[in-house]
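Collaboration report, partner site 2.

Our partner group contributed sequences for two proteins of shared interest, and the home lab folded both. The records are reproduced in the order in which they were received, starting with the first partner submission.
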Amino acid sequence: MRHFFSYLIPFSILFWTAIASDYYEQLILKPLPQSTLLASFNFRSNASLSQFEAHNFRYFPRSLGQVIQHVGTKELHLRFSLGRWDAESWGARPWDGTKEGGTGVELWAWLEAETDEEADRKWLSLTNALSGLFCASLNFIDETRTTRPVMSFQPEGDHPNSTLANMQLLHGVLPREVVCTENLTPFLKLLPCKGKAGISTLLDGHKLFDASWQSMAIDIRPICPDGEECVLQIEQTIDMVLDIERSKRPRENPIPRPPPGHDMKCNSSKPYHSDDTCFPTDFAEGQEWALDQVFGKSVKGTCPLTDPDVPPLCIQVPNIRDIYTTAGATELKNPNGFSRCYKIPSDADFSMMLPRMSQEGEDPATNTRELVQPETPLLYAERSFTGHGYERGGVRTILTNPSPDTEVEFVYMESLPWFMRIYLHTLTTHINGEAVPKNNIIEEIYYRPALDRVRGTQLELRMRIPPASTVFLTYDFEKSILRYTEYPPDANRGFDVAAAIITILPSTSPDAPLARQKASSLRTTTLLLSLPTPDFSMPYNVIIFTSTVIALAFGGMYNILIRRFVGADEGPENVAGLKGKIIAAVSNLVGKLKGAKGKVD
């Protein structure tokens, strides 16, 4: 199994040079089936711990560094994700899923604190600071959305034993958060070149958030190479899967329209193919695109601060495919025959074009010759709700091990809201449709029950799936009734339930493949939970009805108490005289009108 990271740099020495350098950036392009393109942007900056503690910020962003120093954060991981990764079509996730988060915003960090109360205070300060820095609703990660994972996460950096003793892990997620352009702008401002030069010039909100799947990741951790000074490393990653046909639409006319007849791609092998009959070809048959077409712009040179030994752009296609680039670029082919990198001019725009391979002739193109076949994931996972009604329900998770000869060991974690009261005794497991004892699949369980309006439910399972098997994991839960002030404005839409986190543990076998020798992770999709929803118009109707009754009762009572009622003959004389004068004037006027009418006759 080929590992994703093996395609990044054609020569291994370049990788170690990039680790030791203060800053480098690289873009990896990988065409995928169904006319899609995976684009992975990676930016990495290093700052020595002595310079960081002395507030000497060079490549490390000052705004984020001050927050970390103030809160006492030893390691931080932040994710902004949107969309769904199609593992069946696109294969394994990039970076083994370590740069991926659940839908919405996900944050976990190791804080230096001696007590839980101190950790909670620092966590609150951290979420509020990051909320303002990234224009996100991270300040809504309160105690009901915060968990303390036990088995799912491990520190990625190098921490001394004295520091590990006082480090506490806290995790929070906002599945309802909508990731948009206002989150991308602060992300770009953390880069040394601020998106003005280098591969970051391709990042545009219109293209990024029109992707079928996208993820933005920020990882901060200490790295201590052997025999060298420890450095604090910040790694920023953006991964997106672009639909090539949709991305090639011009920005000034993005509305999809049927193509003209002469531009349609037809399958000429059909017996009914003619000038007026067309059967569209499959999306998988041939890809033709250019960098400036897909991203809407070219790469504006290179960032002057980046490591010149690391090629800024790589593409994973077989070496038999032709690629055309602008003048001045240097091509470096990987000996494995499935990737190549380009060193581009520092002061000129760069673009590249991948032409379509011929589908006819003596040597027609095939998927193997045209694309690097996606890797098979170590595990497939999907999750859904079961049951009906507004009182109870269930959750079913389907986990599939595609390997024919290797079992998979992983940790399955769910962070559920407090209004989902699960029944742990209903937890059952099935293998290929047959019920089996839980102990055959689940090796360890960590369960922290929810407290109403205080904390959510935390469930962690350490599981092992045999080769070529499918495990069904199910349990039941009860839905709570909320106060009417706890419902969101769109209450009838439902409540978002955070994605389940699956951490695949590294294999202990010495003969295991490279991909199995390190930890990887994946997330399921989020769920939409329907709760009993009251009629929010009833309080309004009650208020109107009550106000009307009070107004009528108060008005009548007020008139009775304040007004003075007297008879007509008991009123003042001037009133009676005035009334008599008016009646006399009216009578005289009527008489004159009748007299005038008689003279005319």
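Second partner submission, folded after the first:
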Amino acid sequence: MSTNPDGLNHVQEDGFGAFVALHGGALGSSGVPQIYWRSLYHKITDEIYDAGEVFGIMQVQREEEDEDGEDGEKKRDNPGVVVGCKVVVTRGSGLQVSDPTSIYLVDHAWTYRVEHARQQLEQIPGLVPRMASLMGLDFHGEVPTPDIVELILERMWKYNQTYQLSQGSAEEKVPVWYVMDEFGSQVQHSDHPSCCMAPFFYIQGQLAYTLLWPLQDLPQGDEVTRDYAYGQTNPLLRRCRLLPWVHDDLDGVSSVITEPADSYYEAIARENKEQLPVEVQPATVPKDKVLKVFTEMSQVRNNLTHPRFLLTEDEEEADIIWSYGHIKDYRKLSEERPHVMLNQFPCESIVTVKDCLAAVARRIKGGPTPDWLPETFNLQMELPQFIKHYQLRQHRGEDNHWICKPWNLARGLDTHITNNLDYIIRQSESSPKVACKYLEDPVLFSREEVGMVKFDIRYMLMLRSVQPLRLYVYDVFWLRFANKPFSLDHFDDYQKHFTVMNYTEGVQLKQVHYDEFIPLFEKQYPQYPWKDVEASLFKAFKELFQAASSRPAPYGICPYQSSRAIYAVDLMLKWSHGQNGERIMQPQILELNFSPDCARACLYHPDFYNHMFQTLFLDQPEDCPVTQIV
């Protein structure tokens, strides 16, 4: 039986070509030199794990670094030497950059999403002993104890790496964290690394690896190092990124934050690619005209029954376009169809994206965060200020729990609550996030069957115009409740610390209507009439939109005369102190959402969209349950 090496080579070439077509973009963006791609293909497809033939782990003793105490004295809780590890080249011929086979697969010992970490440590046999050994923790049993699980959850942020899937649902795109195997986890940091490491997802096999390749020739005995802050060239930000491993008091860094420079808003405008409209005259609607509405949103199509509005399938004949997606080319609409009314404003992202919301809110006091917004830091731009602020709070003995949220996701996705500074710093590696002060003393609601739980409130705001500013709020509001009593622990317990239950299977969704809630609330807090609480909420809404409309686009919401919008504002109440030291309920705005999910609104208030459209497009709020704020 004869073989056909030419045919075999042809198949291999086809396989390699397909591999490059699928993965070339990812390999290029990770900086993997093309000289290694073919060898990588063969090692992955043939499952060749040959790093053990080239590298070894060596134990080393090094003097423990002392940290200065508060009084300037050296702290020596455990003086002496510390046993650590490093990776060295053990092959006699060393490692050459020019060798096409000088790329190696590093396995992952543990891959998880953060919300599942505790459960996996408690339930997966052998995981705790392996992680404890890898992280240098003293554990000799087999059954995980609560203490060792907590230690691993704290220490793992010195070992975690991350990647994100680029396709799939919002849930599937939540960052994945992983700990490399014992070999990969012992590669130490250097500002002048000898090697590079990057995560790699093999699509055909649905497997994730870390790739390692040399940046310089390494003779036998040389150490393998990598840059833990790879890609960060700003010296101060490098110090911040390296703080989980390299102690730094950030002397000389201020914790003060102010509104960002104009270039911040200009960069956002370029990224959003919105074409600003030309100025148009306000549309006037004859009293007897039936307005044609084009929308693809089923909630609007199924619930808009007002006789002055008629749904149309033809966008070209529409008087109103109610779009689910973001409109980009306002200029074309303003030039070609200036009197077509829209359900969004140009540059409204300055209130609907969390980092922008915090930036704009600083206008109110000329720098500091207003009382109605939790202290918020942009972890991409304000990481040094955040770390310094954290260190100062720690020095003063103040609560230091923070909640890290993606700039532009909802429903609690990829959201983390912690007082672990390493954890917070590492969050900036996965996706752009803000760190907001977690409310350690929220106003709670007594659920008879559960106890004192967190709750949040959702109001619907209607922005009729920016110049002049005309803002309404829907009188009906919605409530969401946690399912477990509140306490400052177990921050990965979703039903204790979060309130959005309507997207999670198998959990209770507590329903209390606003008109039932008010007497229950006033019974629990008789000194705080709801009308007074609500007045403070409306004052916060007013101040926010006054700030957001105080400057022209792109530094404020664009005053396009044909725009209207509704926003869902989510907020909580926290305990604070008034000017005379009395306890007060302070509103805390959490976020504003564009195109919010109005399923509950439509279910319990079938005229919801009729009221919205009548207020925004007919200028007839009198017969609707709305309050004009501005």
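Feedback sent to the partner group on the second submission included the following. Residues 67-80 have pLDDT under 50 and may be disordered. The first strand starts at residue 55 and ends at 63.
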